[in-house]
Amino acid sequence: MVEFALILPLFVLIVVGIFDLGRAFFAFIAISNAAREGARVYTFSPDITTIQNIETAVTTEIGSSPMVDVGKIVFPIQIECGSSYQDVPAEIDLEDCPAGQPIRVTVTYNFDLLISLLFPKPLTLKRSAEMMVPWIK
After folding, report:
1. 89 and 75 in contact (C-beta within 8 Å)?
2. Portion of the chain with pLDDT greater than 90, in percent
3. Dihedral of the CA atoms 22, 24, 102, 81 (nearest 10)?
4. In the Cβ-directed half-sphere of 109, how many Cα atoms lie within 13 Å?
5. What long-range pairs does 37-44 form, CB within 8 A, spacing at least 24?
6. Are strands 102-111 and 123-132 parallel, antiparallel or unpaired?
7. Rounded Cα gap, residues 103 and 85, in angstroms
8. How many CB atoms lie within 10 A of CB 4?
9. Is a pLDDT exceeding 70 seen at residue 137?
10. Do residues 129 and 102 lie in contact, with contact meaning Cβ atoms separated by under 8 Å?
11. What's the DSSP call for residue 137?
């Protein structure tokens, strides 16, 4: 009984840690899909797409995941384009993304662990997706 009492907290910590790892992996896949969707929106219609359209696509994709909270996305979502990956802070810069060059959308997400007593800071997950800007704009 004493041995069981000594081992039980460690066993529970391992089980909860495995569960947290699974949740973090699920969130990582969700933000990967969201970044890909943000880049995809721009490649379909680069002449009329705005930064707001890209952010809406990202939040909609993350919102479709049941275990991921849209409120924990770090805004603004980072958008870069061109071969040197220049930051796109405004609409006018988005219109100047060169055709035939990549656009990169980076999503950052703050993931809260269940074992927050041991790790009080959230885990920062960051994922990027790149797609080529079409030649015809």
Report:
1. no
2. 58
3. 170
4. 29
5. 37/61, 38/77, 38/79, 38/105, 38/107, 38/129, 39/103, 39/104, 39/105, 39/129, 39/130, 39/131, 40/131, 42/94, 42/97, 42/103, 42/105, 42/131, 42/133, 43/103, 43/131, 43/132, 43/133, 43/134
6. antiparallel
7. 8
8. 8
9. no
10. no
11. -
Residue 89, token pair as written in the block: 């802070």
What local confidence, expressed as pLDDT, does residue 94 receive?
83
Confidence of residue 54 (pLDDT cuts 50, 70, 90): very high
- Per the DSSP assignment, residues forming a β-bridge with 131 are 103
Residue with tokens 């002449």: 47
Q: Where are the domains of the chain?
A: 2-132
Q: Residue 117 carries which DSSP code?
A: T
**Mean pLDDT value across residues 68-81:** 91
Looking at the whole model, is its pTM more than 0.70? yes
Name residue, tokens 């959230």. 122
